[in-house]
Design brief:
Strand content: 15-25%
Largest sheet: 4 strands, antiparallel
Number of strands: 16
Mean pLDDT: 75
Radius of gyration: 27 Å
Distance between the termini: 39 Å
Low-confidence stretches: 215-235, 263-268
């Protein structure tokens, strides 16, 4: 599952409001031309507001392959418009790795997560830094932490590979699954000699190794996933040590501005005196460090300590004993 955000634009708002007062959202889990079922109800249908043309809807049980349509509806007359054209929403599997709630509860616990006026910092701020942290680790570890389809990865075929039951080391790993492997003759035509489905494939997901069971031979180029996608390691199954490091890095974003708001940017202490009465406070802020500098330093230390372990685990020697 993934958190999918939809945007519904009401171009002729005044005209629409003459007949309707709500927006319904429909979803298809079977593709663009699938069956669309309403996922809103009487309590969650989006109310139309005067002057507001763009409306957001979040499907917390969505997926990247789902399609959505919307309609206008009146809650009293029950009149409904035709469905809109289909669209796909905006989702990011980074929020499946670390959620905003997990970040606040486990890594920002005990902090005042509001600005000077007492307004809570928006969830979009936390989401942005979670996505940024996941992207940073993907580049640092050279791993795809978020699922993506790979439909045409090619490998040259060598005789010694056949002795290992067509042993293949995939270019991207870890992987979730391999849908199909084909042995294809070289040349522009690309004639398929043999196709191996999942039942013939042995997959070492963490190492990115794929082998075919004995009994089949061929020559040419091996093509993975020609008719179906193969996805890198599913975010929901990432080990806790990696999710922990990502969350700590994501904490840097909110902790920096929150630290500045703690008494004011660069203010270490302050005193107030009125008619002989005085009150003062002292923070850990200074001209060089934010208010939560100690926590930031600890998180930075722990991230640096765990990166060599993660690199060794995911990017160690890729070998097989034949």
């Amino acid at each position: 599952m993934a958190v999918i955000t939809l945007k519904v634009v009401v171009a002729n708002l005044e005209v629409v409001q003459r007949t309707f007062n709500r927006i319904k959202i429909y979803r298809s889990v079977t593709g663009l031309d699938g069956t669309y079922v309403e996922i809103t109800d009487s309590g969650t249908r989006i109310p139309l507001e005067t002057g507001k043309m763009v409306y957001d809807y979040t499907d917390s049980a969505g997926a990247a392959g789902y399609y959505y349509k919307s309609s206008y509806f009146h809650s009293v007359s029950l009149l409904e418009s035709s469905l809109s054209d289909a669209q796909q929403g905006e989702g990011d599997f980074a929020l499946e790795i670390v959620s905003v709630a997990e970040l606040k509860t486990n890594y920002l616990y005990g902090l005042d997560l509001t600005d000077d006026s007492g307004t809570p910092m928006p969830d979009s701020l936390y989401e942005w830094f979670i996505k940024s942290a996941v992207s940073w680790f993907e580049h640092r570890l050279q791993l795809s932490l978020r699922p993506k389809p790979i439909t045409s990865e090619s490998h040259d075929y060598y005789a010694e590979d056949f002795c290992q039951y067509v042993f293949i080391k995939t270019k991207d790993y870890p992987i979730i699954d391999v849908d199909e492997l084909r042995i294809v003759m070289p040349g522009a035509g690309g004639h398929t000699v043999q196709t191996f489905g999942r039942e013939f494939l042995h997959v070492e997901r963490e190492a990115g190794h794929v082998q075919v069971v004995p009994g089949y031979a061929g020559s040419g180029v091996v093509v993975l996933g020609t008719s179906g996608p193969w996805l890198p390691h599913l975010s929901g199954t990432l080990p806790p040590v990696l999710r922990d490091a990502i969350a700590k890095l994501a904490s840097f974003g909110p902790l920096n501005p929150l630290g500045d708001l703690l008494g004011g940017a660069g203010i270490a202490s302050q005193n107030l005196s009125i008619d002989g009465l005085s009150q003062g406070y002292t923070t850990t802020s200074s001209a060089m460090y934010a208010g939560y500098g100690a926590r930031l330093a600890q998180y930075e230390k722990e991230i640096k300590q765990v990166i060599p372990t993660l690199e060794k685990y995911y990017k160690g020697l890729r070998m097989v004993v034949a």
